Amino acid sequence: MSSEPLAAAIDAMLECEEAVTACAAAMVTEDDVRALQDAIIRDLNCADVLAATRRVVSRGSDAALLSSQLEACVLACEHSAELCAQHAGHHEHCRMCSNATVRCAEACRQVLRGLHG
Amino acid sequence: MSSEPLAAAIDAMLECEEAVTACAAAMVTEDDVRALQDAIIRDLNCADVLAATRRVVSRGSDAALLSSQLEACVLACEHSAELCAQHAGHHEHCRMCSNATVRCAEACRQVLRGLHG
Amino acid sequence: MSSEPLAAAIDAMLECEEAVTACAAAMVTEDDVRALQDAIIRDLNCADVLAATRRVVSRGSDAALLSSQLEACVLACEHSAELCAQHAGHHEHCRMCSNATVRCAEACRQVLRGLHG
Amino acid sequence: MSSEPLAAAIDAMLECEEAVTACAAAMVTEDDVRALQDAIIRDLNCADVLAATRRVVSRGSDAALLSSQLEACVLACEHSAELCAQHAGHHEHCRMCSNATVRCAEACRQVLRGLHG
Which partner from A67, A82, C113, D23 sits 20 to 30 angstroms from C99, CA to CA? Predict the structure, then answer.
């Protein structure tokens, strides 16, 4: 497959991993943390799944594992985006995080389309 | 679902992550490293996928992500086991690694059966 | 240096990484999460520092980096233990976590003594 | 301290983590892998130390741990740069990697100067 969607996905994952890590830490320290508990767990999961997926993509082999790990990554990004979007109005870090996870999920889907197309 | 298969899977993943990390590093420094190139990449991928999966399991929520990430983890362990098994006769670290990945894949499948059963 | 303190440190780090990861996630979902905010951040930091340190130890080379990373790991464990110990009376996961971090800090110090001794 | 050096360090660490991960995987698959064995181990160590350091920086608290982890990160980058620089003439990924690690070490030193200054 073309390397362009792979490079775009790696960039999106780097940006996204940083956004969800910072957002999770910021949510932990918010006054309304009680309302953010599920969103924090989803961001923490998303950061770890992103880190593993990015490394598998960067090593550029084992297409079956790559595909399976990208599917998990799309899910992790979507689940994180779903909850942070609900807090995007009152927390800037949630707005940035939900934008980054939406973009990253799409970049991962683009690679999956290239693998299966 | 019962917490027993989860605890067993976490233990298997911890042992396995250590085994594949140590095996990858040992293979890199072997005289016959040219014959081990694919096995090294698979072990490196396996270590990273295991780390993410174990953390998602430990956080104990988001069953859909857990299931998807466990599927990727089974694949990572199987692919690592497949190649290290070929070198188990002449490298003790490959023998230990392939045993650990086989056990870990089975422990992950056990959790998946509990999730879907 | 002898490999026994290294193996003991790796075991302590594996156990500890699991304890701080599970404890952080459990604290996030507690009713009194507002009282646990700093402890959560310290556990998250500790988990990540442990993961990196354990991998450097497992690769068994670069004594200068190993020493520096172990110093950071001792600090991460001590800082985590300090706060979780304050919640050990009312949260079982904090009690387990603070025990694990105290043990792990000591196992890392033992390796440092072997490196510098 | 000012947040500008922190943001610059996070960017440098993201770029560097990607460069060392990709370089390590590329070295593993080179024909002259026997000459690259130490450089591979250093890149693998560097990637893991970078990941932990970046997350601690992103969480923005615990200055003592931050300082200690940044010291380890500077060392990891310098050690990686030292060996990859020797292969920069014949491997493009080593040239990119050694540039990224040199830049990243400097960005981390800049944060350390801000912490201690």
Answer: C113
State pLDDT tens for residues C37-84.
999 999 999 999 999 999 999 999 899 999 999 999 999 999 999 999
- Chains with 3 or more CB pairs closer than 8 angstroms to D? A, B, C
Q: Work out how many CB contacts closer than 8 A connect C with D.
A: 75
Cβ–Cβ of A22/D54 closer than 8 Å?
no
Which residues of chain C make contact with D45, given a CB cutoff of 8 A?
Answer: 55-56, 59, 62, 65
Residue D83: HSE in the Cβ half-sphere, 13 Å Cα cutoff: 22
Nearest to D79 by CA among C68, A25, B1: C68
Give, for C15, the enclosing helix (H) or strand (E): helix C4-28
Q: What pLDDT was estimated at residue A117? A: 72
* Residue-wise burial string across C21-43, b where 16 or more C-beta atoms lie within 10 A, e elsewhere: bbbbbbbbebeebeebbbbbbbb
Q: H-type helices in chain B, by residue range?
A: 4-28, 37-59, 63-85, 92-116
Token readout for B25 is 């590093």
What single DSSP character describes residue C30? Answer: S
Q: Which ipTM value was assigned to this complex?
A: 0.96
Average pLDDT over residues D63-75: 98
Longest dimension (CA), chain B: 47
Residue B37's nearest CA partner among B24, B47, B49 is B24
Angle, CA D84 vertex, CA A5 and CA A51 arms, to 5°: 40
CB C62 within 8 A of CB D75: no
- From C101, C99, C16, C5, select the one nearest C51 (Cα to Cα): C16
Neighbouring C-beta atoms of residue B71, cutoff 10 Å:
18
Instruction: Give the tens place of pLDDT for each residue, A16-53.
Output: 999 999 999 999 999 999 999 999 999 999 999 999 99
State the Rg of chain D over Cα.
14
* DSSP secondary structure, D88-106, as one string: TTT-HHHHHHHHHHHHHHH
Residue with tokens 């110090």: C109
- Cβ-contact B23, B96 below 8 angstroms: yes
Whether residue D27 contacts residue D41, with contact meaning beta carbons closer than 8 Å, is answered with no
Q: Which residues of B touch A44 (CB under 8 A)?
A: 55, 59
